Amino acid sequence: MQKLSFVIGVTATGKTYFIENSFKDKNVEILNIYDYQIKVYDEEGYNDSIPIDAEFRCLKKANDMFLHDIIEKLKDGKNVVAEHTLYKAKRRIAYIEEIRKAADVNIEVYVMCPTDILWEENIKKRKLLKDFNGYKREYTELFEFPNLSEGFDAIYEVSDGKVFKREDPLKPEIVEKARKEIKEENERIFKENKSRMEKDKLIKSMNTRPFWHYCEVCGKKEFITAQDAFDKGWDYPPRMGFFGLLSPRKCGKCSINDTLYWKLIIEDGSSDSSYTDLTPDELITLRRIQEEPESLIETEEE
Ligand SMILES: [Zn+2]
Question: Which of 17, 28, 48, 267 has the greatest number of CB atoms lying within 10 Å of its CB?
Fold first, then answer.
């Protein structure tokens, strides 16, 4: 029967080295989650820094692509070795369920468990973000050791090159819990995607639709398009500044020196942390800017 071997574990525990030395069969396809993550970050245009919510989205996308390729290779008749961190039982359970639906395959997992001495050496050799204690803590706090109840046919522990078969007692209760967590997570992601798409659509529509332009200085307001506003000399997003970020919101007749932006950013040099002693009108302006572009669609109640 075809075989799928997961090789999992924390950073610098020797996954790649173990794979290179243990799976030399010609019919083996080796897939590494790291390659997929790099590819997704590239595609999404992230190089060095990634916002947290985007990182979660990218990792999920990489995981989905990884799973897709595992299944494709198995369908091609290959044996597959899959290198991944896979800390969480729920991720492994979700993978195994999908794979078993698509292919009749023997699924085993090798868990890298080096002794502290070897692991610390590995970490020192590579220039990594965290030190040994950091990774050790990550392992202790986050890593859930695999259990046969997750759907594996066999579980092995790899310690400094030696392989031991693990025969831990079954924990069937983890499966239901994992399914529930995955379901909730998928629902949350679906909702987030939907609201992000709606927000993007709204922001795009602000280029063409008429919306309220409020002059924070003289109090004038006009329901006009961005083009009209620009032609009349308004300072207003999307042509000038960005929705939701403090910059002048004023008509063509008023002066930038009288704007909230001027008071807070230019004169005070403060960031958004010290917005004390604002007048009621200034607070209204600030709130309106923070809630853009939604705050510009409907007529404000007087
Ligand atoms: Zn004005």
Answer: 28
Closest residue by Cα to residue 71 from 80, 60, 62: 80
Q: Which CATH superfamily is domain 3-191 in?
A: P-loop containing nucleotide triphosphate hydrolases (3.40.50.300)
User: How many Å lie between the centroid of ligand 1 and the Cα of residue 234?
Assistant: 9
CA–centroid distance, residue 244 to ligand 1 (Å): 20
Distance 221 CA to ligand 1 centre (A): 8
pLDDT in tens, 163-199: 999 999 999 999 999 999 999 988 998 998 899 899 9
Average pLDDT value over all residues in the chain: 91
Question: Structure pTM?
Answer: 0.74
- Strand runs labelled E in 11-66: 28-32
- Segments making up each domain of the chain, as ranges: 3-191, 211-296
Angle between helices 33-43 and 52-75 (to 10 degrees): 130
Measured between alpha carbons, how far is 267 from 260 in angstroms, rounded to an integer?
10
